[in-house]
Amino acid sequence: MKMQIAKIFLLIVTIFLFSACKNAENEIIEPGEIASLPEPTSQPATPQPPSWRDAFAEILFEHKQMGDGLRFFLYDFDRNEIPELLIVGEYEDEVYDAVYTFHDGAAFSLEYDEEVRISDYALYARGGIIAPMDETEGMIPSLVGIGTLFGASWYCWQVVMDGDRLVIQNSGGIIIDYDTLHELFDDFGRDADTETLHAAIEEHTHFYVNDEIVSEEEFFRVFNIAHGVNGIWHRLPLPLLITDENINDVIYFLRGT
Length: 257
Fold this sequence. Notes:
By secondary structure, the chain is an alpha+beta fold. The protein is built from 7 helices and 12 strands. Strands 5, 6, 7, 8, 9, 10 and 11 form a 7-stranded mixed beta sheet that branches. A 5-stranded antiparallel beta sheet has the order 4-3-2-1-12.
């Protein structure tokens, strides 16, 4: 009897072990039951240096909060392919000028004397800003004087960067000697022969550089602009209002500069 019980017990143990082995082969291990593998380490992204576009956009968004009396444009004073940012207009009933350059990863405000009145020339009805030819550095703010039947004098300034300052390198103009013409002609020359009048005006129109009379050729050489006063020079377009659309279009080159 004991022998039979032992055999039955051995049979039960054998069946149990066989069943346990089979279950171990088919068992599905849940993810939480095993140690998770360490995630591969990645190198931190190298921070990108600030761009002049982002720096200027931030400055413009700040100026946008100052009201709608300000405008802006870009101009590359030193021809290094990174333009300067010029903000012009009125703020709190006063003329407002600000010029920013970008170097060493940051934007800086340029200093300049009050004679560098960019707003007056960029926005004034008889003013304008001219880019010199041949990638010459600097810009040329200009102003047309009050016109008469003898014509209108024209004044200009050559503004360049000197470090982190804007300075007037040369000043000049094409100046008509009205006093002499009034002595030569009555009633602004209305009764004079046209050819005679034009010849007299040409004779008494002088080219000035830094308060000295120079030849016409020397004048245009110094300022490096093309001959002529009436629109054939490279005049910059009018500054744009500081709006989100204009900031995106101009600063990020969606519309160009």
